[in-house]
Specification:
It is a single chain. Helix content is 33%, strand content 21%. The chain has 3 domains: 160 residues, Adenylosuccinate Synthetase, subunit A, domain 1 (Adenylosuccinate Synthetase, Chain A, domain 1, 3-Layer(aba) Sandwich), CATH 3.40.440.10; 93 residues, Adenylosuccinate Synthetase, subunit A, domain 2, CATH 1.10.300; 157 residues, Adenylosuccinate Synthetase, Chain A, domain 3 (Alpha-Beta Complex). Strand 16 and strand 17 form a beta hairpin. The strands form 5 sheets. A 10-stranded mixed sheet has the order 9-7-5-2-10-1-11-15-19-20, sandwiched between helices. Strands 14, 16, 17 and 18 form a 4-stranded mixed sheet that branches. The chain has 13 helices and 20 strands.
Length: 422
């Protein structure tokens, strides 16, 4: 497999967890490179459903090493709960998980600030998960954040945390929020630090040596292209680089060591939170929600749904350098007589073939559609490309061609076996 970067080609929630799990069969190491516990990857193994937030999805396969890279912001208390939850489910987490010593930490004051800022924005809110991710990355950029290497040094951690609690209590006071207790925060985080200490390592050196030994590494992206802090629909984005370049900065593995980029996209379009979604459509949203689909793994919120947006995925292919495409949730369209695909945007008489950087301009864009005949046949039990309905194959070929990359995987359900290799 060589070294593979996997990214979301839409607004996140593309089904990356399932595709990561499938590709991990060919990998030796799986690395999470950005984001925090605002992301959720859902993997089904038989009747069991696993929802992962910080631990890489590769943990569900035996003899795979999982790495939480330096680009991730870690809530230590949440991570301990996640690890313990996996152990209770019979998943081995001992010697197969490493946490970067330079990953930054998320604290209760980050979550409080996240919530207070959303309240202050009112109707202009971003729609964050309120997990404190943005404020944690803000501290990182301001060079005032605390890192995992601080957490496992008891004396240093106490001194630094006391200053940060004092500083942030003044900010919370200005918002009218309750101040935090240093004693209770310190106790909870020290307990988490003691638990996590055996997992903490210099992951940059570990990955460098792995590359030298010719190991296959899968770089697991969180969220999606249009939530990227630089290339997404700013300000309705997350606070990290969710595009392919983030895999390098978030792991310490240089670009020339990367061999391919796989982009994951749904056979339609969804997003959680606020911001433009040109192809949003009530008909397909009602259909998918009635099927029990498209509810956030982290928040449980109903996702906004729309027709496939080829303008967006073409832009994602360009920004990420996507070589191969994995299309998920094809079976969600099985019952439709006609399927629409957005192939351009229009404002008045002007047509756009790209995603405008100006969010106000983008919010005014109307979709230009072409229509495809539906196949109206169940696909969830199909395992071979040739057995898919001809119209389903034509639809997949069309959206891949419109996106500008080669189709290699089609997914017809959440389970491992519901995967068609093209």
């Amino acid at each position: 497999m060589a070294n593979t970067i996997l990214v979301g080609a839409q607004w996140g929630d593309e089904g990356k967890g399932k595709i990561i799990d499938v590709l991990t069969g060919q990998a030796d190491i799986v690395v999470r490179t950005q984001g925090g516990n605002n992301a959720g990857h859902t993997v089904f193994l038989g009747p069991k459903k696993y929802v992962l937030h910080l631990v890489p999805s590769g943990i569900l396969r035996k003899k795979k090493i999982c790495v939480i890279g330096n680009g991730v912001v870690v809530d230590p208390v949440n991570l301990v709960e996640e690890i313990r939850g996996l152990i209770r489910l019979g998943i081995k987490v001992d010697g197969n998980l490493l946490i970067s010593e330079t990953s930054h930490l998320v604290f209760p004051y980050h979550r409080e600030l996240d919530e207070q800022r959303e309240i202050l924005k009112g109707k202009n809110k971003i729609g964050t998960t309120k997990r404190g991710i943005g404020p944690a990355y803000g501290d990182k950029a301001a060079r005032t954040g605390l890192r995992m290497i601080d957490l496992i040094n008891a004396e240093r951690f106490a001194d630094k945390l006391e200053l940060k609690i004092k500083e942030n209590n003044e900010i919370l006071k200005a918002f009218g929020a309750k101040p935090l207790s240093f004693k209770s925060v310190h106790a909870a985080y020290r307990t988490a630090g003691d638990y996590l200490k055996p997992f903490v390592a210099d992951t940059v050196v570990f990955l460098h040596h792995a590359c030298q030994r010719g190991k296959n590494i899968l770089f697991e992206g969180a969220q999606g292209t249009f939530l990227d802090i630089d290339h997404g629909t700013y300000p309705f984005v997350t606070s990290s680089n969710t595009t392919a370049g983030g895999a390098c900065t978030g792991s310490g593995v240089p670009p020339h060591r990367m061999d391919r980029v796989v982009g994951v996209m749904k056979a339609y379009t969804t997003r959680v939170g606020e911001g433009p979604l040109p192809s949003e459509n009530d008909e397909i949203a009602d259909l998918l929600h009635s099927m029990g689909r498209e509810f956030g793994a982290t928040t449980g919120r109903a996702r906004r749904c729309g027709w496939f947006d080829a303008v967006a995925t073409r832009h994602a292919t360009m920004v990420n350098g996507i070589d191969e495409l994995a299309v998920t949730n094809l079976d969600g369209l099985d019952s439709l007589e006609t399927i629409k695909v957005c192939v351009g945007y229009r404002i008045g008489s002007k047509r756009y073939e790209y995603v405008p950087s100006d969010i106000e301009l983008f919010s005014r864009c109307e979709p230009v559609y072409v229509e495809f005949p539906g196949w109206q046949t169940p696909t969830s039990k199909i395992r071979k490309w040739k057995d898919l309905p001809a119209r389903a194959r034509s639809y997949l070929k069309a959206i891949a061609e419109l996106s500008g990359a080669k189709l290699t995987i089609a997914s017809v359900g959440p389970a491992r076996e519901q995967t068609i290799f093209v």
